[in-house]
């Protein structure tokens, strides 16, 4: 029997937890055997509220982590400010007491803060990919559905946890059992780790013009050092006038306005999800100064970057 432990961070995603636990339960049912057992842990041994306010009670104490084979950190919202030196020290100790250590959703951020992901490949929920890369340049952030790197495994969260756990079941007990579990959850196929987390741009923006999609992709890849309008048009294989017309037709904005929108969107994510200074964020998002960033940010979001960070820390 393999024993899993799920460490629950306040505000954790209930979907992420269910997607990781349910496949273990169903594997036991389909195999008609006790292949897996699972426990829940919390930092203070008190019940933990998920982001949807559902409450889960811990079933074992922190000092019992040594009885586990696998420890999975389950997180969700407001994780950027979670944890202190004592917690991260415990997490490092726990990593030495189990065979496998993992995380789902935003839990990768906590593993990285505990210095457990240095020079490792990992993933995280797509909203946190950019801020994670800025904070931890010594970690390879793939941004894929799930990743395995030695004794460490990470998952982007949500339904991707089901695919990751099905892969774990397949590796341990065979692909046939994993398929039986998948069928029980009306999951037609086990997604490979490299499948995109996010909807394709065409679907998200309801745009089918390939040149416009290419231009937006190039913008997203060049936020720190923005390209000029002409450079962007050249890279997208169209004239500046053609590009201007496409943006106006499909997005009701000029290329410059949409480019600024993307940079401010990334700014907001970094302010909410990282501890980087406003100056560092301004540089990462292609703004020449914090004052210029503040003017643009105020115009779009009706608050300054510092106010945004203060508001988010109080949520």
Protein architecture, described:
It is a single chain. With 315 residues, the protein is of the alpha/beta class. It has helices at residues 14-31, 85-97, 107-113, 129-135, 160-173, 175-184, 201-205, 210-221, 229-235, 240-251, 255-273, 278-284, 290-301, 305-313; strands spanning 2-8, 36-41, 48-49, 55-56, 70-74, 100-104, 121-122, 140-141, 146-149, 152-155. The strands form 3 sheets. A 6-stranded mixed beta sheet has the order 2-1-5-6-10-9, sandwiched between helices. Strand 9 and strand 10 form a beta hairpin. The chain is globular, with a radius of gyration of 22 Å. The model has no long low-confidence stretch (mean pLDDT 90).
Q: Report the strand count.
A: 10
Low-confidence stretches: none
Specify the number of helices: 14
The largest sheet, given as strand count, sense and whether it forms a barrel, is: 6 strands, mixed
Shape descriptor? globular
Task: Tell me the fraction of residues in β-strands, as a range.
Answer: 5-15%
Percent of residues in helices comes to: 40-55%
Protein structure class: alpha/beta
Radius of gyration: 22 Å
Quaternary state of the chains: single chain
If strands are numbered along the chain, what order do they take across the biggest sheet?
2-1-5-6-10-9
Order of helices and strands: EHEEEEHEHEHEEEHHHHHHHHHH
Between the first and last Cα atoms, what is the distance in angstroms? Answer: 41 Å
Q: What is the typical, i.e. mean, pLDDT?
A: 90
Key features?
315 residues; alpha/beta; six-stranded mixed sheet; 10 strands; globular
